[in-house]
Design goal:
The protein is mainly α. Helix content is 81%, strand content 0%.
C-alpha cells in the first residue's frame, strides 16, 4: 500500500499543492487588506466631504442671517425715515 493513499508525503516529494495553496491564500489576504484600505480611504473621503458640506451649509446659513438682519435694519430705517 502506498503512503499517498493515506495522505502521508514522502520526504522527497515536493509540496507543490501546499505551496500553491499557501501562495494563493497569501494573495487573497493581501487583496482583502487592499480592499479594506480602499474602503477606509473612501470612508475618510466621505466624512471629509460631509464636513465640507456642513461648513458650506453653516456659512450659507450665516449669510442668510446677515441678509435677514440687513433687511430688518433697512425696514427699521425706512420706518424711522417716514416719521
Amino acid at each position: 500500500m502506498s503512503h499517498k493513499s493515506h495522505g502521508i508525503k514522502e520526504p522527497y516529494q515536493p509540496m507543490d499543492n501546499d505551496v500553491l495553496l499557501t501562495i494563493s491564500s497569501y494573495e487573497n489576504i493581501q487583496r482583502c487588506e487592499e480592499e479594506i484600505e480602499d474602503i477606509q480611504i473612501q470612508r475618510h473621503s466621505i466624512s471629509r466631504m460631509d464636513g465640507v458640506a456642513y461648513e458650506k451649509r453653516k456659512a450659507f446659513d450665516q449669510r442668510g442671517d446677515i441678509a435677514i438682519a440687513a433687511w430688518a435694519e433697512q425696514q427699521q430705517w425706512e420706518l424711522n425715515s417716514k416719521i
